Amino acid sequence: MRKFLFFFTTFSLLSIPLLGQENKSVKDTITSSIDNREHFTFLDIPINGPIKQFVKKLENKNFKLEDITDVDAVLTGRFTGEKVQLLVQGKKETVVSVIVILPERESLFDATSRYTYIKSKLIQKYGEPEIIEEKFEEFNNKTYEDEIKALKDGLYIFESHFLTKNGNGMIRLKIESDLSILIDYVDTKNYKLLSKDAFEEY
User: In terms of Cα–Cα distance, which of 101, 74, 71, 82 is closest to 197?
Assistant: First the structure.
């Protein structure tokens, strides 16, 4: 599951116009020279450096390590007052992103309410989203199972992508098909490096 999330995160973020360079192809943007911007932070920790080192800093903020490999780590703890799971991803020597996985909601109404609240907070901090994909089709006699199926089938979509004002970070907010909510914090500089390596491999 963690490997699936890693590839889903990496390739879904290719759709974001990095650093506002909309007129360049994704590959040209990613393989351009790395700038001097400071690294994006998560809980005031720069999203940079070896995974093990980054995990130690999260443990110092009372997160508990559950599992770790050379490319990712899973931790649990509290974030914005909720018990959450953190998925740290990248390469052995370079952290790229931190995905906050909020608990599953009991209904789509609960999930969208939480999504809308988090989105408003992100807008206050980072400005309007660069990309918004929100789709909601009404149908009668909705049950929990109906809502889950609608999310899986793409009838319901709730996803927003943000760029920081100085371009050093990207944030993706999304309701998943199990009614959990993901907040994905990505360091632009390390993301570009990782993506450049991926393109060169193929």
Answer: 71
How far apart, in whole angstroms, are the C-alpha atoms of residue 3 and residue 88? 11
Whats the size of the chain, residue-wise?
202
- In this predicted structure, the answer to whether residue 38 has a pLDDT above a threshold of 50 is yes
Is the backbone of residue 80 left (phi > 0), alpha (psi -120 to 50) or beta?
left
State pLDDT tens for residues 138-173. Answer: 655 578 788 888 888 888 899 999 999 999 999 999
Per-residue pLDDT of 167-190, as tens digits, reads 999 999 999 999 999 999 999 999
Enter the tokens of residue 149.
């199926």
Q: What are the phi and psi torsion angles at 179 (to 5°)?
A: 70, 15
- CA-to-CA distance for 17 and 88, rounded, in angstroms? 23
Contacts of 119 (CB under 8 A, 6+ apart): 129, 160, 173
Q: What is the pLDDT of residue 58?
A: 98
DSSP string, 65-117: EEEE-SSEEEEEEEETTEEEEEEEEEETTEEEEEEEEEPPPSSHHHHHHHHHH
- For residues 164 and 12, the answer to whether their CB atoms sit within 8 Å is no
DSSP character for 156? E
- Judge if pTM exceeds 0.85: no
Which pair of tokens denotes residue 21?
Answer: 């360079």
